[in-house]
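Hello,

Our lab assistant flagged a job as stuck in the queue for most of the afternoon. It eventually completed. Since we weren't sure the result was trustworthy after the delay, we are filing this so someone can double-check. Below is the sequence as submitted and the structure that was eventually returned. Let us know if re-running is recommended.
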Amino acid sequence: MAGIGFELNKLFQEKSLGARFRAFGYSGVIIAGPLLLGMTYIFLMSNLARVFGLPRTEQYLMVVMITYAIVAALILTGMVSLSITRYIADKIYLSKDEDILPSLFGCLSILVPVGSNLYLLFLIGSKLSLSLVFANITLFAELVSIFMATNYLSAIRDYRGIFLSYLLAIITALIITLILVQFFPQSLFIYLVAIDAGYGTQLITGILLLQNYFGSSDKGFYKFLPWLRKYRRLSAIGTALNFGLFSHMIFVWHSEIGVPAYGLFYAAPQYDIPALYACLATLVTTIYFVTSAETKFYLKYEQYFNSLNFQGTISTVHEAREEMLTVLWSDAIHGAIIQFLFTVGMLSIGLILFERLQPGFTMQMKNYYIILSLAYGIYATANMLSLYSTYFADYRSVMIDTMVFAITSTVMCFFDIRFSQSEFYGIGFLLGCFLFLVVSYVNLRKYTENLGYEVLSLKPFVPEEPRRTKHFIKLKKQVKI
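-- returned structure --
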């Protein structure tokens, strides 16, 4: 997240308990805001639809449509989000704020049309009515825009404004729903319209916050494109992460417990609901990394590289390096312990709570919830270690980490669905997360043990010899060198 940790560090420097709670709350909203908003809509609209008498099949289809739109938008934006975050961070460092907001509109001018056309083909193939196609494509486009805007919102200081934008979005969706059900007969369309209005409100208020902070400009819409090429490994990392995270759900949708919802829409309620709740396990470590590990570690990180860049002595460089790595591994261990305790809590207190929130929480769903809570908890810890590697621009290792995760999770889930009993679905994803953790730890440990060599040997000390292309050989003969 571009700049959020650095700004939250100011709140953590305050001694009051209220400032720390605000820091944790703001970071939670910024990091997980769109995901939590989607979960809120699913929970809120499902209950409203049940109260007002929407047929159960349409209630179910609404949840499926929201889930598909969220997953599709995450996969699409994941291809560019990390590279865009790097672009934002570089522009902030160079004090070129005028280039930041135009890049959002430039990025959306590419992603929204391309993604919407692909999603439109899926919707047409599902043989939905024209009204539902319109509502769904609007929802998808809004989600793509919001997920991209979140990368930019993480860089501004107006945390209270961001929180209020999400609150206003929920209130808007609720009010629109209550109005529409009074004047129109019950239908899936009116609930999707209300959700579109809620997401639209959040998107508009988010852009207004960005304009207020960065200012507006009509130039430089596509200056971010060289960053996509230069940091293409970041695109591969984001794609692999999302693929590894969602492939297990796609496999289960088409397994023996999957059921057709409508057209090409498939789902597995027995698996999807536990997965939705278990996914919350990832929030605590991510928030911890941003609010605690990133803020404390960055100070030592900055001190170490300042000692290298501004002619520090060998002893000061060595001391700064040791202090930085001590903080890194200390924070990593604390994060893993917090994640372990939170997972234990989700397997005990959380299981009781979700049973009451979700009627018909069967024994099989409990099994899935336990497996997936463990899996997401391990994933969160592994992802934290990979995020530390990105600090040192060790994108090669992070790409290996995420590729291992994506491939092993997908392959193991395939065999899990193909050869095991339905009670054990999710084991393949759990094993993939565990391998992700092992590889992330090994690569980070290996890199930090050779940190001096890695940092000082990134570039050659003398220019490399020009590549001997045909043009170069011809030129060499002409000048006789």
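-- support follow-up --
The delay was a queue issue, not a problem with the job. The result is valid. Residues 314-357 form the longest helix (44 residues). Strands lie at 259-262, 265-267.
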